[in-house]
Amino acid sequence: MKTNVSFILFVLLNILFISSCVTTKIVSQKVTDSYTSDEIKQHIQERFLHASDSLKIGSMFVLDGIPYYEKSFENEPTIDSELKKYDKSAIQTIYFANASKLNIACRVYDFDIIPIIRTNENIQKRKAKKKILMRLKERYFSGQFTVATRPLVIFNRKPLTVNSAFKVLQNLKVRHINFIQKYEESQVIAGFEHISKNGVIEIFTK
Q: d(Cα 55, Cα 111) in Å, to the nearest integer?
């Protein structure tokens, strides 16, 4: 009887091991189309107009708060090797920050701006979401602000007109938000140059 039980446990453990291997393989296969560092640079140059005119994008990137370079230093992973781990759909935001304003020690100082990349693995706290959403709604619904001072809202990757943003924000709650980002740097969004000069806030819902 003990022998039979041991045999059954052995078989079950082997099935679980095989299942875990299959699952791991399926997860890895989901990354079918990942960004390259050149595509990240191109995205910034196309979306943020003034970035391509006077500011130089260098070799350092920040991915989920960790700096990476295009070339490896002392066998450290490169930005391209890290980007390969994420499908494009897993990248939530791509923006940039002025290198002089970031408190990051750089190996190479050959740039003015640093690409900032956030993935869907970066979980945002409810308190942070609420703070940004409340300030955004104040800019839209408070009588203290005029239409000319309202920021651009990018909702699930789509820039909204002021009227469309009004409709979205009226019913938007913190619980609906997966991630909300306020761009600290001056951003000029192609096609929305006038309103984006007032600031840009990007929202992703669940």
A: 8
DSSP 150: P
Whole-number Å distance between alpha carbons of 206 and 162: 22
Burial class (CB in 10 A: 0-12, 13-18, 19+), 175: exposed
pLDDT tens digits along 6-55:
444 444 434 333 333 333 333 344 778 999 999 999 888 877 755 555 67
Q: Which residue has tokens 């970066």?
A: 122
Burial per residue of 103-127, b for 16 or more beta-carbon CB atoms within 10 angstroms, e otherwise: eeeeeeeebebbbbbbbeeeebeee
The tens digit of pLDDT for each residue in 98-118 reads 776 666 666 555 677 889 999
User: What CA–CA distance (Å, rounded) separates 99 from 67?
Assistant: 12
> Nearest to residue 186, comparing CAs of 109, 116, 112, 95?
95
Convert the pLDDT of each residue in 162-203 to its tens digit. 999 999 999 999 999 999 988 876 677 878 888 888 889 999
CB 63, CB 79: distance < 8 Å: yes
Q: Distances in Å between the alpha carbon of 74 and those of 49, 101, 104, 189?
A: 35, 27, 18, 38
